[in-house]
Design brief:
Layout: H1 14-35, H2 40-44, H3 54-73, H4 105-125, H5 138-160, E1 187-190, E2 193-197, E3 213-217, E4 220-223, H6 229-237, H7 249-258, E5 266-269, E6 272-277, E7 280-283, H8 295-304, H9 312-320, E8 375-381, E9 406-409, E10 426-428, E11 437-438, E12 442-444
Parallel strand pairs: 8-11
Antiparallel strand pairs: 1-4, 2-3, 4-12, 5-6, 6-7, 8-9, 9-10
Helix pairs in contact: 1-5, 3-4, 3-5
Length: about 450
């Protein structure tokens, strides 16, 4: 199997590709309905100025599907042109969306169902070849990824809401026996040399993942596992939040302005750290990857530990590079699509797996849990690759380049497999903590024998 296979479907069969797309659309919609199957008052309420009301996300996924699939690909008459401006993410910042005349929940559900019916009819008659927009089903894949990204955003909104729990895990975070992490090395050495970063042939890759290009790197060491809650508590106990030595100038200023003393949703009570997770208050699990930390906190921890955050290229080489073949894999474990044995994905667990879980998902170099569990902050700013070309619109990636955004890699437990691969790039402001973020650290290899 090679990198250019169609995300798990047989490229030789148009029917198989269409069935794969239809399944992805249904999986995304099922998640959205589950996450909005709550009291209507909770749907229309804004739980944080950082996030939209859930009802905005609900109709927005349908609005985008109408624009791209019904009107553009299908050439059909608009269903609701009167609401286009309401669900334009660039026209309406999240903090102002509650003041808009949004569709109420019942009407939103009826609208997205009507859009989906037309989209499936268009898919049934579509030729998935010709223009770049439809080649290999790209635009349909873009909509699947878009809806799944909003499902993850909805989960972040649920985490911010107050009140009684309304979400419950479908499966345990440790769906497979964990690896014997006591036997795993603390870190893995990645050899010097070039590797292929990004992709030019992955059918559903977005423009910021393209094109494939060679990157030369010196040797370095990277953590075998993400930094755990237990390790981060040591940073707290050692006064890490109160010592400016470990913080960048901007990070220290933000730490003081925001009054940061621990990861978001943590509090110290009764001699122990507790966290709030989707309405439940529980002891912070020592062996889970640290979650809900900003880039500034991750950077400060790394400095305190005498290490640093890996660059984006270092992260991707550790995840994709196969030293035996010299090629870059689609995923750390190979080219086959993720299963629960490989990674904690899909949002069903409502939490990260303990470090050392999913040993089948390790990279060829022996780095574990690079996919799923937590998005991992890296040192790099969000910038275009050499030879970048906007596709299919500038507002997806280009407008964010150079805006002070830091890159996140790997995907969290809340990410669907359609929006998770070795080349996938996420980005956010370095102050953000409401997203499902963690990190691992790295260091330079001082000598060839190191």
């Amino acid at each position: 199997m090679t990198e250019n296979h169609f995300a798990g479907a047989d490229t030789a069969s148009s029917d198989a590709v269409k069935a794969f797309i239809a399944g992805g659309l249904e999986r995304a919609r099922s998640r959205v309905h589950t996450l909005t199957d709550i009291d209507e008052g909770e749907l229309v309420k804004q739980h944080s100025p950082l996030m939209s009301p859930l009802v905005w996300d609900l109709a927005h996924v349908g609005s985008q599907e109408e624009l791209w699939l019904v009107r553009d690909v299908g050439g059909r008459e608009p269903l609701r042109p009167d609401i286009d401006h309401l669900y334009d993410a660039f026209e309406n910042p999240r903090s102002t969306r509650p003041s808009l005349p949004l569709l109420p929940p019942t009407e939103s559900r009826r609208y997205i169902a009507e859009v989906r019916s037309k989209a499936l009819d268009i898919l049934d008659g579509a030729r998935l070849e010709g223009s770049p927009l439809v080649e290999g089903g790209f635009v349909f894949g873009m909509m699947i990824q878009h809806e799944q990204q909003h499902a993850e955003t909805m989960l972040a909104t649920h985490q911010l809401r107050l009140g009684e729990p309304v979400l419950h895990p479908v499966r345990a975070a440790e769906a497979v026996p964990p690896a014997d992490r006591e036997r795993l090395p603390r870190e893995v050495r990645v050899p010097a040399g070039s590797f292929t970063m990004g992709t030019s042939i992955e059918p559903w890759a977005l423009d910021n993942e393209r094109p494939a290009h060679e990157v030369e790197l010196p040797a370095y060491w990277i953590d075998t596992l993400p930094v755990t809650n237990a390790a981060f508590v040591q940073f707290i106990d050692d006064g890490g939040y109160a010592d400016s030595r470990w913080w960048s100038a901007d990070g220290w200023a933000h730490r003081n302005e925001a009054g940061l003393v621990a990861p978001k949703y943590w509090k110290f009570d009764g001699g122990r750290w507790l966290r709030t997770r989707f309405g439940f208050v529980e002891p912070v699990p020592a062996d889970e990857p640290d979650q809900h930390v900003s880039w500034y906190e991750a950077d400060a921890y790394a400095r305190w530990a005498g290490r640093r955050l890996p660059t984006e290229a270092e992260w991707e080489k550790a995840a994709r590079y196969d030293p035996e073949t010299g090629r870059s894999r689609r995923y750390p474990w190979g080219d086959e699509d993720p299963t629960p044995s490989h990674a904690n994905l899909g949002g069903d667990t409502l939490r990260p797996s303990a470090v050392g879980s999913h040993p089948e998902g390790a990279s060829s170099l022996g780095v574990h849990q690079l996919m799923g569990d937590v998005w991992e902050w890296v040192a790099s700013d969000f910038k275009p690759y050499p030879g970048f070309s906007v596709f299919p619109y500038a507002e997806y990636s280009q407008v964010f380049f150079g805006g002070g955004y830091k890159v996140l890699r790997g995907g969290s437990w809340a990410v669907d497999r359609a929006a998770c691969r070795g080349t996938f790039r996420n980005w956010d402001h370095p102050i953000r903590r409401q997203i499902f973020t963690g990190f691992r650290t790295a260091r330079y290899a001082s000598t060839t024998a190191d």
